[in-house]
Amino acid sequence: MKDSRHLGHPYGLHRVREPQGVLPQPAWKIDADPSIYENELCIEVERLNIDSASFTQLKEEAQGDIIRIKEKIWNIIQERGKMHNPVTGSGGMLIGRVASIGSHYPNHEIQVGMKIATLVSLTLTPLSLEAIHQVDLQTGQVEVSGKAILFATAPYAILPDDLPERVTLAALDVCGAPLQTKRLVKPNQRVLVMGAGGKSGLLCLYQAWKEAGKEGQVIALEANEQACREIQNLNIAHEVIQVDATNPIAVHEVVDRVTHGKLADLTINCVNVPNTELSAILATRDQGLIYFFSMAVQFTAAALGAEGVGKDVQMMIGNGYGQGHAELTLNIFRESPKIKELFVSRYASR
Ligand code: NAP
């Protein structure tokens, strides 16, 4: 232990190594020493959920080779003290057991031995690994041994006992998206979800279906054929369309057709690959709103793309945090056994 002496900065400034003076998220390197400051908490890490944009990039760069993916994950964490993919800039989150709690850690409900999921990005979570045991190529979940640190301000969730851990991990990584969907969708709106068959896409679809009501129209766009079938079986979208979200002309055409020229009032972008900004922009009506949850979205492409096609749309960055986001997301599984079943079959059956 660091003789349990000082309090760290509540936002983790004390662990920033390079460059000095910035916060842990934008820092290149942070100190992942597992000995805690008095207001920190240490987790014995069991599993990482690598952010989908990051995992897709790592998988592509390693041409699907598990050994090379392991090496890349290992090297990033060794070099930066956190799982912060330098290409995509994104992270993910983790689950593990509480190993030690500083005497000034602000939350008193938590105890050593409890299993928790961090609700703060891996791009700012100090992480030191002892081993990477297994990488799941389908889900981006990685079984590891190691230690992580939570700063005094970092949110977390105690794992519920009515859901498989791997389902909880998959869902909590994206739990900001359904919360924002609940806030943004108004009754009777036309809501478009891009990348609708993935984790965040499905949760957003469900929430949009609930909020838009009988007179609303929920449109699911997805490239993957199997995922389109799965959405259809869930009965949470009026239209399920298989289309490539990186093709703006094709996306505009189908959305124009199914909305009879009105386009979407609200577009939620949950795709895990780059170059989808213009599709979202063209599919949304003037004065409509685009919620860019995807981490593969580029600010410049969105801002200049909208200007370039003369589209007066509002655009919103997908904050991963919102009050009550974890509870709302886990409740979706309690409300919809079919969505729970699908997540279990994808994320907890192997
Ligand atoms: P996911 O589960 O991998 O889902 C992405 C979906 O998009 C998949 O169904 C995928 O199909 C589909 N897709 C891929 N390429 C497509 C294309 N060209 N056209 C249409 N659909 C396509 O991802 P997720 O975990 O929900 O994450 C979605 C995005 O949110 C990612 O970019 C992730 O990095 C980001 N994210 C943001 C935050 C935040 O705080 N804002 C937090 C977590 C994650 P396939 O399965 O066939 O690839």
Automatic annotation (TrEMBL):
Residue ranges occupied by any L-erythro-3,5-diaminohexanoate dehydrogenase N-terminal domain in the UniProt entry: 14-160
Short name of one Pfam family: KDD_N
InterPro entries (UniProt xref): KDD_N (IPR058932), NAD(P)-bd_dom_sf (IPR036291)
Domain of life: Bacteria
Entry protein name: L-erythro-3,5-diaminohexanoate dehydrogenase
Organism of this sequence: Thermoflavimicrobium daqui
